[in-house]
Amino acid sequence: MITRVIVVGAAGRMGQSLIRAVTEQEGMRLVGATERQGSPMLGRDAGELTDVGALGIAIESDLRACSRADVLVDFTAPESTLAHARFAAEQGMRMVVGTTGFSSQQLDGLKSILTSVPVLMASNYSVGVNLTIELARRTASVLGPDYDAEIVDAHHRHKVDAPSGTALSLGESVAEGRGVSLEDKAVYARQGITGAREAGAIGFSVIRAGDIVGEHTVMFAGAGERLEIKHVATDRMTFAHGAIRGTKWLMDQNVGWYDMQDVLNPS
Ligand code: NAD
Fold it and tell me: How far is CA 142 from CA 49, 148, 156, 174, 200, in A?
């Protein structure tokens, strides 16, 4: 059976990678693509910006103008993802969410909208990053809080949220490995006379520069040794391929809220 997919944010960096990944995937078809109102890409062919060539799908500003789909793939921005979620819930359409930077209020809103469809949401769809998240949990649990945990993320100059969603997921995983709450232990900024490092803190540092696709390091520093787990993404297609793998998996799931750990470690 063919899975019919709508990609919103079709002219975005991830939108373009997703369109390429969907068209390359056997058993999947792009049936719709949207962009924000006022985008110069409206009315243009969704394949035009990628090297896949014309697809016969015009980029629309309104989801209602798209053909009926099985799943909506959304890597845009929090406010627009909330609007898209209302449409997906109304239409009984599955949703794959890659957008990051939600406030906790927005996240609660998203969860309360998407109660009747299967949803896959991950701050990072790379398979390597999801393995890094697992390794961070295990390492934190074995080393314990005597090893200082610091998380560094580096991204391109256009990224609007910090720390990255992935850095926060890594922080959650370190906290989980230690049996504490990230909210209680996170230190997001240091400047001036900060005093000595608080025992058990989970620190975050952020680099935004140039065209860095995405790099994350989780450092555990103890007395006399340091262990670093590092992941480097060199091409956005890694996120798109992971999202498509997740989309295929989601097609067989019941109503519920899933993440990439569920996709990679099915129970
Ligand atoms: P981008 O700015 O290049 O693309 C976003 C696109 O969404 C833009 O073209 C914008 O015009 C469009 N858009 C905004 N509002 C819209 C609306 N209402 N309807 C349709 N389109 C709309 O950004 P990007 O680098 O592609 O990243 C997008 C999001 O995905 C960010 O939140 C980013 O952090 C996240 N991201 C997630 C992963 C992951 O694996 N989960 C990987 C990379 C990026």
Answer: 47, 13, 33, 11, 14
Residue 159 among the catalytic residues: yes
137: Cβ–Cβ under 8 A, 6 or more apart, which residues? 173, 174, 176, 177
Separation in Å, CA 114 to CA 59, 80, 213, 247 = 25, 14, 30, 16
Kindly give the distance from the C-alpha atom of residue 76 to the centroid of ligand 1, in angstroms, as a whole number.
3
What is the pLDDT of the chain when averaged over all its residues? 96
CA atoms of 219 and 230, how far apart (whole Å): 8
CA of 212 from ligand 1 middle (Å) equals 16
Q: Is the CB of 80 under 6 A from ligand 1?
A: yes
Condensed to tens digits (0 to 9), the pLDDT of residues 217-246 reads 999 999 999 999 999 999 999 999 999 999
Active-site hit among 84, 155, 185, 231: 155
> Which atom of ligand 1 is least distant from the CA of 78?
32
Q: What is the CA radius of gyration of the chain?
A: 19
Helix (H, G, I), strand (E, B) or coil at 255: coil
Atom of ligand 1 nearest to the CA of 16: 26
Q: Is the CB of 124 under 6 A from ligand 1?
A: yes
Report how far residue 97's alpha carbon sits from residue 75's, in angstroms, rounded to the nearest whole number. 6
